[in-house]
Amino acid sequence: MEVMSDDLHLRFPIGKFQAPATPLDAVARGAFIADIERLPHDIRDAVAALSEQQLDTPYRPGGWTARQVTHHVPESHMNAFVRFKLALTEDTPTIRPYDENGWASLPDARTAPPSLSLDLIDALHQRWVLVLRHMTDGDFAREYMHPELGPFRLDKALALYSWHGKHHTAHIRSIAR
Questions:
Q1: Does 14 reside within a domain?
Q2: CATH code of residue 34
Q3: Closest Cα to residue 71, out of 20, 37, 133, 114?
């Protein structure tokens, strides 16, 4: 087990993403889908525990504020949802990365009420889970091409976004302590 420095622990409170061996079986996929389904409740619960001052507190020195993290998660997951749909309807489509730090520095991410993104993630995850629950083994084996990371299987992407939601929920919860 890797021992993390304090800075790494602040950056990765649940540990770094560990890509699973693919293909994932139906049981493993079901657990990751349940995480995706549960995330809107978990992040809403974490945000509800924060004061207005805490919403504008970074989770680590040089890190985003809880407000920025709250807006980042649905932005990231919207991109993931689109990537899944592209991979399900096209042959290994090349996806477009985006500048997460740039998006987090825009006025909406710095100032908008968290409720806007909490409502967005509720609806987004309902749609995403509907797609995920109807995917076949063959669907989860489909890939998209990430310009920096290369081919990315959908079962690996499912595991990544399951981790991603827990990772950022832990960031938000760390501020309430």
A1: no
A2: 1.20.120.450
A3: 114
